[in-house]
């Protein structure tokens, strides 16, 4: 059951690991144009996934790239402006304007005319760099252009990593994590394709199609070849679909969608439609004319005929594969621009493999189970899973807006109802209109029913405050509930608080249930309290819809040795970067990262604090610091290993106690 739940969790996690990034390195080149003219060339090498903005950015947009050349001795004159490459121009969903940016590399050229002897020209570049989900604060890097007799001279100069306040993290970790994310997408997609293969729209096509190729081919080898071409055609069709999604929307829009409130609401409604379709309320089908035209093309024979047979399969099976493909594309798109392509590759590979394998070994067809009611059962099970996942997206929107409509108890109750109904369905106690009469329950159906029933019973104690560690990342956090300590439980006073010094909850603080950790949600109030009681500060950059934050709180923070430190040895300040509550009028200030824009929401205030101070805005992100706001130890991100996290806390506190200032 745990492996099945892990697969479900992977489908809904937007996995991001926080770190301090070093995405840009600069080199300079000098090219001699004439005896008195030189071209100063600055080249930026940009890590995959990051964007460097143009020199020409609309007002209220991101910080443009700006070059300044020091000419205190008046030894040269600038000829025109600094020129740049064409770059990519997109309608940026974050800044809501057309913006030009550069990927991978960017070259800038400035022509100068030398008026007196000069050995080098010095200057600096100020720039802002972003990826699909975060922006680093504006950075200045010094540039040195050596004016030598050689026609070209390349100089490696400082990169953004050398202008960082608090970390020496290695930049190599970013590509590694991207690669891990793509492998995760691939395997989830392959598993999803396998589920689609077991639906009544696809499974019966295997023996029919393979038999057709074997009978219509002159010999066995030709039949195998044609079946392989058929499988490859299926892969091409779905990969092209993934490519089109990436090209039409682009990575910026897709990632912006994945964290947007209205997108989560829209996807909740979409999954409800998909779920109802799988349960038999109606059937999602593409226009009949499409299938008819494709069938005519398939009759042509040859390679094109085989390709159109594969396209016909995709169209005819849409009622079963459409909801799975739609869900998969959205989740894959949250990773990167290649995510949908990798996702469709994994999905189509699972669909195509059986056709090629059974064509090569036709005797295996006899071992296939006969089509029947069990295929409809698979479809219904998928329908229940779609409904359950739908409420996760609705929960994300509710958490970000802090509406408290879908609090923890309600979410768990909904899931208990959904999976309880699924268990009754598998045991034959509930039948849907399109089901065949059940005369007996197979061993496989009984086993799956027992797993689902066990999972349903497992969730019930969650209504009374149980942490539900198996699914800790899916429901809202325990403090986001009507009764944080469990249904029917009311805490009287602070008698259950085991912290040493919390006889009275200070102003601006609250007790985080269910373990009564004293926490502040305001940086400055928490800092003042820490100075008063003489304890180090732990900043918890978090988010209401942050999956890994919930996993840390419910799987790591609850361990006795970690919990003891959080309750007694540090002052916890939890800053929610997605808090959409508006700032008071006297707190609205200009953004330091986006000149001309105002910080309107509480979450923007804390997000900018994190970005400026720590050059990252991914969550969770943990900082241990002293009263002078100096780091006691290198900040960490998602750390699921309890011992590693405990050792980090212990070392930070040890450094605090050994500091002369304390």
Automatic annotation (TrEMBL):
Keywords: Cytochrome c-type biogenesis, Membrane, Transmembrane, Transmembrane helix. It comes from the Bacteria. Its main location: membrane. Residues 34-140 form the Thiol:disulfide interchange protein DsbD N-terminal domain. It is a multi-pass membrane protein. InterPro entries: Cyt_c_assmbl_TM_dom, DsbDN, DsbDN_sf, Thioredoxin-like_sf. It is found in: Membrane. The chain crosses the membrane at residues 181-206, 227-249, 261-286, 306-329, 341-361, 373-390, 410-427, 448-466. Residues 183-395 form the Cytochrome C biogenesis protein transmembrane domain. This is Protein-disulfide reductase DsbD family protein. It comes from Hyunsoonleella rubra.
């Amino acid at each position: 059951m745990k492996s099945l739940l892990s697969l479900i969790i992977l489908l809904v996690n937007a996995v991001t690991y926080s770190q301090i990034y070093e995405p840009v390195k600069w080199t300079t080149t000098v090219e001699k144009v004439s005896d008195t003219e030189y071209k100063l060339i600055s080249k930026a090498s940009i890590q995959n996934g990051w964007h460097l903005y143009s020199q020409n950015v609309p007002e209220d947009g991101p910080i443009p790239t700006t070059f300044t050349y020091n000419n205190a001795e008046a030894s040269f004159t600038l000829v025109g402006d600094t020129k740049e490459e064409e770059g990519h121009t997109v309608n940026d969903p974050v800044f809501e304007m057309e913006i030009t940016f550069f990927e991978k590399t960017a070259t800038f050229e400035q022509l100068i005319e030398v008026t007196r002897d000069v050995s080098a020209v010095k200057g600096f570049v100020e720039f802002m760099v972003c990826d699909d989900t975060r922006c680093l604060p504006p950075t200045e890097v010094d540039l040195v252009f050596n004016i030598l007799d050689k026609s070209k001279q390349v100089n490696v100069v400082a990169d953004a990593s050398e202008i960082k306040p608090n970390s020496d993290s290695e930049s190599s970790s970013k590509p590694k994590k991207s690669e891990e994310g793509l492998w995760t997408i691939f395997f989830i997609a392959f598993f999803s394709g396998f589920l689609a293969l077991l639906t009544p729209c696809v499974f019966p096509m295997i023996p029919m199609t393979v038999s057709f190729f074997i009978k219509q081919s002159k010999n066995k080898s030709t039949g195998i070849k044609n079946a392989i071409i058929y499988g490859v055609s299926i892969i091409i069709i779905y990969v092209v679909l993934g490519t089109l999604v990436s090209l039409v929307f682009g990575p910026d829009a897709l990632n912006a969608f994945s964290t947007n409130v209205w997108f989560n609401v829209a996807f909740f409604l979409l999954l409800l439609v998909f779920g109802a379709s799988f349960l038999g309320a109606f059937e999602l089908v593409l226009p009949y004319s499409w299938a008819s035209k494709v069938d005519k093309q398939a009759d042509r024979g040859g390679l094109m005929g085989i390709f159109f047979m594969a396209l016909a399969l995709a169209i005819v099976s849409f009622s079963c594969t459409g909801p799975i493909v739609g869900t998969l594309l959205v989740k894959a798109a949250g990773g990167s621009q290649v995510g949908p392509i990798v996702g469709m590759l994994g999905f189509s590979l699972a669909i195509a493999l059986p056709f090629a394998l059974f064509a090569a070994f036709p005797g295996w067809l006899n071992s296939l189970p006969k089509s029947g009611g069990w295929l409809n059962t698979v479809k219904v099970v998928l329908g229940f899973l779609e409904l359950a996942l739908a409420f996760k997206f609705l929960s994300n929107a509710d958490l970000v807006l802090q509406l408290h409509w879908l609090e923890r108890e309600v979410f768990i109750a909904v899931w208990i109802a959904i999976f309880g109904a699924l268990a009754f369905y598998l045991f034959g106690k509930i039948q849907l209109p399109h089901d065949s009469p059940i005369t007996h329950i197979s061993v496989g159906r009984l086993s799956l029913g027992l797993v689902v029933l066990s999972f349903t019973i497992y969730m019930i104690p969650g209504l009374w405050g149980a942490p539900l560690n198996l699914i800790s990342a899916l429901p809202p956090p325990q403090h986001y509930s009507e009764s944080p300590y469990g249904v029917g439980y009311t805490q009287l006073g602070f008698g259950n608080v085991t912290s040493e010094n919390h006889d009275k909850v200070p102003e601006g603080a609250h007790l985080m249930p269910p373990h009564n950790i004293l926490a502040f949600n305001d940086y400055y109030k928490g800092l003042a309290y820490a100075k008063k009681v003489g304890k180090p500060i732990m900043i918890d950059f978090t988010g209401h819809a942050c999956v890994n934050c919930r996993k840390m709180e419910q799987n790591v923070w609850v361990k006795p040795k970690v919990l003891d430190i959080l309750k007694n040895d540090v002052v916890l300040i939890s800053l929610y970067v997605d808090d959409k509550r508006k700032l008071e009028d006297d707190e609205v200030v200009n953004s330091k990262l986006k000149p001309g824009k105002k910080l309107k929401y509480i979450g923007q205030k804390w997000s900018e604090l994190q970005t400026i101070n720590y050059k990252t805005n991914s969550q969770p992100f943990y900082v241990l610091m002293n009263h002078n706001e100096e780091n006691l130890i290198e900040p960490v991100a998602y750390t699921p290993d309890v011992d590693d996290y405990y050792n980090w806390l212990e070392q930070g506190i040890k450094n605090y106690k050994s500091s002369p200032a304390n």
